[in-house]
Amino acid sequence: MNLDNIRKGELSEVFSALEEAFKVTGIDYYLIGALARDVWYARRSKVFRQTKDADFAVLVGSEAAYSSVKQYLKDQKSFQDTKENSFVMIAPSGIQVDILPFGAMEIDADVTYASHGLTNMHVNGFMEVYQSGTKEIAIETGHYFKVATLPSIVLLKFISFDDRPEHRTKDAKDVANIIAYFFDLQADLIYREHADLFEEHERTLDEISSIVIGREIKKICASNEKLLSRLCRILKTHIEQKQKSAFVRNMLVSSEDTIETKTRLLQNIYSSLAN
Question: Are residues 8 and 143 in the same domain?
Fold first, then answer.
């Protein structure tokens, strides 16, 4: 993976600090968000937005366990808290690091943290991704992390947009780009496990990709019927709204496709989830 355009040296220091903190405190974790997406894109030299932060989902059994990793980073690695958001820390290099807890701290898929600033966040889907939607990948910095798969990233972006649509305007564009790049990035998976899609109908690569993404998300949600139902509701709403849906409109940013084309791709994902 070529990290030259996303401050490779600085990220390496951040990764090493986090890796040490998680090991010392006995906390398991995986990489999510824009940097997880970029790990996959960089495997085929795809174009992506320059990432200025790193997001880690951390499995913790209590608020005390979560506090311990933050305290270690402050005491031993000179990280700083932020006043605005209790789940964000700033590395000495200035890189923003989101440390997002899930596990026993969850109450109805929310996390509440007794501190200052933003102290409540939604983590719907984090456990399911941890259990069934990550892959261990070696990064050029020398680190070896569990990284959310592309279908997992799509799953979390649907949830994030549904939770905070006014703050998550880039999620839909990211989903559209993942669909566009997915066949090239995951051809082995598609031919190995979804060869039936080449037998019945003539489909575009984007159509095949959207169906496979839906199938893979359904596998991730297999243990949580409530989560699967929520995703179906989210997708059905945007499909029915079409051009009235901010998510569908945002999928068209930097694209020459039509509303109908993007809606059909969402329909493919929905059908794979619902069937």
Answer: yes
Tens-place pLDDT, residues 205-256: 999 999 999 999 999 999 999 999 999 999 999 999 999 999 999 999 878 8
The DSSP result for the chain, as a single string, is ---GGGTHHHHHHHHHHHHHHHHHHT-EEEEEHHHHHHHHHHTTT---PPP-EEEEEEEESSHHHHHHHHHHHHHHH--EE-SSBTTEEE-TTS-EEEEEEEETTEETTEEE-SSSSB-EEE-TTHHHHHHHSEEEEE-TTS-EEEEE-HHHHHHHHHHHHHH-TTT-TTHHHHHHHHHHHHHHHTHHHHHHH-GGGGTSS---HHHHHHHHHHHHHHHHTTT-HHHHHHHHHHHHHHHHHGGG-HHHHHHTTT----HHHHHHHHHHHHHHHH-
Taking the whole predicted model, whether its pTM rises above 0.85 is answered as yes
Q: Are residues 135 and 177 in the same domain?
A: no
pLDDT of residue 248: 96
Number of independent structural domains in the chain: 2
Range of the domain at 45: 4-148
pLDDT-wise least confident of 3-17, 136-150, 184-198, 216-230: 3-17
